[in-house]
Structures are given as structure tokens and as C-alpha cells.
Write a structure and sequence with these properties.
636 residues, alpha/beta
Length: 636
Amino acid sequence: MNPVAVMRAARGVRDELDSLMGGASGELRDRLDPLLAEAGSRPPGQLADAVIMLVAEYGPAWERLTALLSLERGITAEQVLPLLSQGPGAAPQEGGAGPTPPSWGAAPPRNGTDPSGWGPDDSPPTASHTPDWMLPDGGGQERPAPASEQAPPIPPQTPAPPPTPTPSPAPADPPAAPPPAEDRGPSVLDRLTGAFRRRRKEPPATAPGPEWAGIPLIEAPAEAVAGWGAEATIGVAPGQGRNDTAIPREPIDLDIQIVAEGFDAPGGWRVRLRADEASPYPRAVVNLVALAQEEPEAARQIQVTYTVRGQVIGFGLRAVTVHGSPGSLGGHEALEPVSGTRIRPALMGEPADVTAIVVHGDRPGRLWWTYQSPHFVTPDRAERCDLGTRTSEFGRHLTGRGRLSEDLGREVGARVPWGFWDLLNAVAGRVAPRRPTVLILSQEPQVPWELAVLEQPYDPSLPPYLNCQTVTGRWPLGGRHPELPPPVNARADRVAVVYGEARAHPLVTEYGATQVSPALGDVLGVLGQGPDIVHFTDGGSASEALGYELPGAPFVFLEEPGDAQAFLIAGASGVVAPLWPADGGLAPEFYRRCFAGEPPAEVLRSMRAQDPDSAGAYRFHGHPALTLRRTAPPTG
């Protein structure tokens, strides 16, 4: 049994201790955490031996450890027990009782992957892959696993460092040797760093008091040297002007996902911190190693996402300059404060079934994807997506066609990383028969990921596009606004419609909307009154209104293409806008169903399914569970 696999499974057990052992989990956590912290500084076989002997003392935790190892090896939990007392490569045997001290050897080859599960190929995927762990016979086509500049651990060099940066130790376990060519390849669980461990049922997260909030904390040197290590402190800070003694009403477990192109993280890319009375603003030190680079100087970013049980509640980033040699150090001043959104667990609602977080890489057209879900523990390593051109150019290339087609959808789907499809397929099977909800948090607003084609649709009777097969929304990421998470409720009593004709718009006759002319002064006047919904029939008036704040967080509907992200940054709770000129006749039916209680994302999904040529142009920006609450009855 591979000691790397044992340590990975042990971390999974640690994350689930509360649900496994309830109030008795504290003792094991206090004994297990110090062992997990020794990864990289103690021989892996010896450390895994100690972990096994400890966990074996606690029945529920031991059962879970063997279950996780059985998932990874594709054998039963009973067959794991004898393997724990044998060297690597031993075949599964029948029977077996409790654990005995194992004799560790070298890790077995894992089909060209490094110990964390990634392979050497970074070819773009397509949406036709079905993960082998979901097929009845355990089979499945082999697919390339994307390599990244984060993936292959590169030991730090050993030149004498200057006082500020200090070399970091090399990762403890070097990549294994490649397998024979005829090997089918590792399971999806191996490829995705343990892949999706199913979460146990947990009680709903208790929202902390409104007095507790924070901002992203990313403390790192302004400069680093390729091949050297650098420590980064990741966590939560109280924020300017806030009381650092404020505490959450209940403990909050924060999962902090790190993405840093051009670096390796020997200890993993995800950190779990607990905010509670003893430590209201927790932090942890993460060891990063700057990878070798061709450029004498490269601008890098450390980007972090804050999540509570699958719900993203904050985001931050910090810039770092990486030099090719230490002789260039000292040319950069101290960095500006970390940019990003506030961390506000008090605003948590129901998380989407799948959340994809898409951030910019260090080169034009390069994106990094990570994933969150309340149903599974997702991989901690980001997947790379290279568009081959700038995101804006790629987006215009697609939307400039002016119509929806499956060819367009396949071109989009080919750029979506494999990990997204694997997670979505797993979640779809778990939440069936209802449709999964998908939230795309993206730093780039141009690429219509929602139009990706599923080669194996969940419902063959519907168009194969992602936003027809699932209930999909998207939300901007990266700046102070809009904040996270997206709202899941919005008022809908006061409606304003920007309409240039003399006759009354249907929203006036049906719902008592206030009708204003497209003149900028009239538009700004009605926006200043804080309406709940603003409906623009004219694209010119919508463009002129950009840049002004939207008090009251209104829901915005654009009948003509416009900058939806600008409205969200200004304060909108959600935006509906077409990607290209389209028939605006769906508005009456859209409002009728939304005011009856259906989420706008679901309403648009079903309308696209019925009329993809027309409604397929409309994209929804907002939480897929957002609902419009209306107390006033129709007037028509």
C-alpha cells in the first residue's frame, strides 16, 4: 500500500471526524493533526505506519480510512486490511483482521502520474468522457490528465539565499516511473488527487453573527527566486476599522483553495482553518516553491478562494515577482494590500451542487479551474485551460456568430477541463431525478461556458447544452464587487421598465411597473429610487447607465446585448442578458413564472430547452437558486 495514499486518506478522515465520531472527535483530531503536519519532514513509510496505528484505535475512523483506501485501489474494504501489512504491489487477499504494523517500500508506479495523481499530458479535453468509476464494470476510456506548471514538483536549488527568501525542502515523494504503454491508466480517483470522496450527511452550517466578517489574508514576500522556497501566510484578517475581537456565533470551518501558477505546494493546495472563539481570525503557513522559468523575471499571482461546505464566500489575490536568479532581488517595493472580496459567512445560502472557479493564469488565454461541491470533497489541484488566444478574442469569436449551434457548443466544451465533467457527472447521479445546479465564478466574462455541449446528455430529450441540461448561473470574480456569495433572494415588488414608445409596456399593465423614457436623466432618476427590478428594452439606455451605483440591489433584464458584469459590480442581484441580438418576446412568460416562485435560472433553462434558437441567446448572471419575491399581486 502506497504511504502517499494512506496519508491522503487520513486527511479525508480528519475532514470528516465530526460526522464520524460526533463529540468524541476532538481526541483523535488532537492526536492526528500533529502527525499530518509532519508530512515532508519524516520518512513517509514511518509516518503512514504511525497514522494507521493511531486511527486503528478508533472504530468509525478506521472504517472510514479503509473505505477511502478501497475506493482508491478499486477493491473492497476487507481486502485493504491485508495490504496494510504487506509491501507495495501485493495482491488483494481474502479475509484479514485488524491492522498490523506495515512494512513500507517504494511507491508502486502510477501510470506516469506524480504522487498527487496528475499525469504528464495537458491536451484539451472534450465533454464525452465518462469517468471509469461511474461505469457498472469499472471500466472507461483512458483520457489524458492535464499537466500544469503547478503539477510536477521541482526540488528547490541550493544557492545561498539572501536574508528574505529561504529555500524550502523538496517534496518528500518523487514522481513514480511511467507505466507500460498498454496500461489503461489510473482510475479517476487516482488522477484527481483522491478525486471525489462522498461527503457524509452533515448538519446545515450555522451562520455566524453579522458582526463577524473578514478580508483575505495573504502574506508573502514581494519577490521570490526560481527554485527557492517561500512561505506564504494564508488566512482571514479582520479588515480595516473592524474589531479583531469579534467572534462567530458558531465555529466555522473554512476551506481555503490556493492557485499559484509557477509554484509548487509540496504540502497541498488547500488549507482548512477553523474560526471560533479561540481563534476568530485564523491563519496558516503554506510552503511554496517557485518553479524554474525561462524568463529572467515573471509576474505571478497567489489566488485564494474561501469556501464553507461547498459555498464560496470570499476571494483574494496577491502579486509576486519571481526572478530567475537571486542577483535580481531587491528591485521591487512592498506590495499593495491584498485585493478581493470580503469574507461573509453570515450571508450563506444554499450552495450550488457544483461551483466552478475560473481564474486567470499568468499568460493571455490561460485559465485555471478549481471546483467545490457540498456533495463531494473535490481535488485540491487546479486544472489548466489554454484557449490559444486572449479570452476576449475567443469570446467574440464564439458570440460573433450570432446564433447557437452544437458546433459552437463543442468548441466551448473542448476547453472545459476534465475535472469539471467528472464532478458534474458524479453530482448528477447523486441528486437525480432533479437537475443539478451549477454556478460558474469567473474572472473572465467573455467565454460562454454555459453553452458547452454534453456529448452524453443527462436528458436526451433536451438540447445538449450545459445550460439546458443543468440549472446554471455565473458570477464575476476578482474585485471588491460584486461580493460573495451571490444572493439567493431578491425583492420584486417595485418594477421599472425603460421603454421609449408612447403606449404602455406590458409590464405596466400586468404588474404596475413604472415606465420611463430612455433619456439618461430619466433612467438615472428611476435608478436612484431603488427599484427591485429594472427592465431595459433599449440597449443604448442600458449602456449609458453603466458606472452608476444601483441602490437596493435590483434585478436587471436587458433585451439587447450589454455589459452584464458592470451591472453586477454596480450592485445588481442578478442580470439576464442576450449574448447576441435575440427576440425579446420571452419577457412576459419569464416574469409570470418568476413571480410565481420559480428561480430565474430554471425559468430560462426550460425556455431554452423549448426554443433554443431564440431563448438560447439569453445568459443568466446570478445564483442558480436566486428567487424573486413578490408580494404585490398582478394588476392586469
